[in-house]
Amino acid sequence: MAYHITKTVGKQDFAELKEKVIEALKAEGFGVLTEIDIQATMKKKLDKDYKSFVILGACNPIFADKVLSIDPHISAFLPCNVSIREMENGEMEVSAIDPMVAMSGFGNDSIAPLAEAVKEKLSKVVELVN
């Protein structure tokens, strides 16, 4: 079972692609709460070289509120991560967590429809970016 929604978008400027992803997230009601620069972090912490690679912590406050109202411990699974990375061949990849998989082990049937709705939104984000 895939735990992510992924699309390869070809060779392009990394900064421009990141902005496209952020705009697509906004269009689906998400804000970006965090940004982790994997390339810079790995260089600083491990002196290891990575190609361009960021993780955006995206949050749709309406859905976050709904799931936190059902189970506040779900906070450990928030925000929804969306990554952008340059692959070895120079093409770019956009990937988002699949909330259906991430939330499947909770045993609470009221969470599933919310996870499905968030998956649809994240799938649109990934699909819109090119």
Automatic annotation (TrEMBL):
Signal peptide segment: none
Pfam entry (one): DUF302
Phylogenetic lineage: Bacteria, Pseudomonadati, Bacteroidota, Cytophagia, Cytophagales
Name of the protein this chain belongs to: Uncharacterized protein DUF302
Gene3D superfamilies per record: TT1751-like domain
Domain DUF302: residue ranges: 36-99
